[in-house]
Design goal:
This protein is an alpha/beta fold and 403 residues long. The chain is built from eleven helices and 21 strands.
């Protein structure tokens, strides 16, 4: 595979990763992921972002650099927008191969280069407003965008070609193969990558939505013709689409409306909670509100987060387990707290065996999330006809709040 030319002197270098590894050691990537870096060549050359050795990624990078008449050894600058190891781990090997390459990052980024990788020479700190003239009409401008999603993060903007190198912002799961640009994918493929970008955002970025909004405001004055993230599609035809998408995602947990739908998350030990949930679902369906449904722990929390993040309403169906919540559901609620899933409209239901207790723990867990809660429904063992009627009514009540 050759490097993908973005414009004269600017190339995308990417590796397709297919692995059973978990992204960040947590999140499944059944459809893989891309690692993107970018070569900018003027009179001097700079590589923006890097990679770790992962499923042959460095070999893929080396081949593509060669196709653009470059190499790790010939670089003048290595720009690190973000120090997470999936974008930096190969830096120690590059420094061995190319002792003179100058490493550029924010002050916090340079501090991490020193502490993470024990590199102390040929380092340059940059801040918002600083620039790097590569000659030949290529000028890189730097913009600090902290906490998207680490404190040291920045973005680069190539002034002449108007390319924004955004690192983890505007990224997505899903490997791309030999195509890379938004105009190379059809509508159904874009629908797939939109789902993967939402899942990526809900898993990786949602905790930092306030900072995403600040970055969008800071960069709002730039004329951007291409958005070049470190994971996923490079947007050259319609960069406004991914900008709008991220603005919408950032609003889901910062006060803007979520989608008019319900995410149902359930777990059941012996089926009694599921019987009650079916009654709730019948009430929701009568109100014609769309819903998604996930069983835990059968469905990985990565996918639960994506649907729950965008939904206005939640149904949480769980039995009591050892006087507390069903543990897989407790894990989901912990993630909701970490990712700031606020202002949801929520119904909690569940059965219990010899004694209840889930409600007490649940109420403590949700106290900080500003949820509008419909009164919970709990029952012992098999739900009665009265229980089922009440559960159906609660489903209709929740749907009514979403309409």
């Amino acid at each position: 595979m050759n490097a993908h030319k973005i414009s004269e002197g600017i190339f995308a270098i990417h590796a397709n990763i297919t692995t059973d590894d978990l992204f960040e050691g947590i999140w499944p990537i059944p459809h893989g992921v891309t690692l993107n870096s970018y070569l900018v060549k003027g009179e001097k050359s700079a590589l923006i972002d890097l990679a770790k050795e992962w499923e042959g990624s460095i070999g893929q990078f080396e081949k593509q650099l060669g196709s653009a008449q470059s190499s790790f050894e010939s670089l003048d600058y290595l720009i690190l927008n973000h120090l997470e190891p999936d974008h930096t781990a190969f830096v120690t090997e590059i420094r061995k191969r190319n002792p003179n390459v100058e490493i550029i990052s924010t002050p916090k980024g340079i501090a991490m280069v020193k502490k993470f990788f024990k590199i102390t020479e040929n380092l340059r700190e940059v801040k918002t407003g600083d620039s790097l003239d590569l000659g030949g009409g290529k000028v890189l401008e730097f913009y600090e965008t902290p906490n998207i999603h680490w404190p040291e993060t920045m973005m680069c903007y190539e002034r002449t070609e108007k390319v924004l190198f955004s690192c983890d912002a505007f990224g997505s799961y899903g490997k791309l193969g030999e195509r890379l640009f938004d105009d190379e994918f059809n509508e159904s493929e874009h629908q797939f990558y939109e789902k993967e970008s939402l899942r990526y955002y809900s898993n990786i970025v949602a905790s930092f939505s306030t900072f995403v909004k600040r970055a969008l405001e800071k960069l709002g004055g730039l004329e951007v013709k291409v958005i070049a993230p470190s994971h996923g599609i490079v947007w050259r035809k319609n960069p406004a689409e991914i900008i709008e998408r991220y603005a919408r995602y950032a609003g889901y947990n910062t006060g803007s409306p979520c989608e008019k739908e319900i995410c149902i998350i359930w777990g059941s030990m012996y089926g009694y909670t599921k019987v009650g949930l079916d009654a709730v679902i019948s009430g929701i369906e009568e109100m014609n509100i769309p819903y998604t449904i996930h069983r835990v722990p059968n469905t990985d929390s990565s996918f639960v987060l994506a649907d729950a993040y965008k939904a206005s309403g939640l149904v949480l169906a769980m039995p009591t387990y050892e006087y507390k919540m069903f543990p897989p559901m407790a894990h989901v609620l912990d993630l909701f707290q970490r990712k700031h899933f606020i202002n949801k409209k929520v119904l909690r239901i569940g059965s219990w065996g010899w004694v209840g207790g889930a409600k007490k723990e649940y109420d403590q867990r949700i106290d900080s999330m500003k949820w509008t809660s419909i009164e919970s429904v709990e029952w012992q063992g098999v739900p009665s006809e009265d229980d089922l009627a009440l559960l159906k009514q609660r489903g209709k009540e929740l749907a009514g709040l979403i309409m």
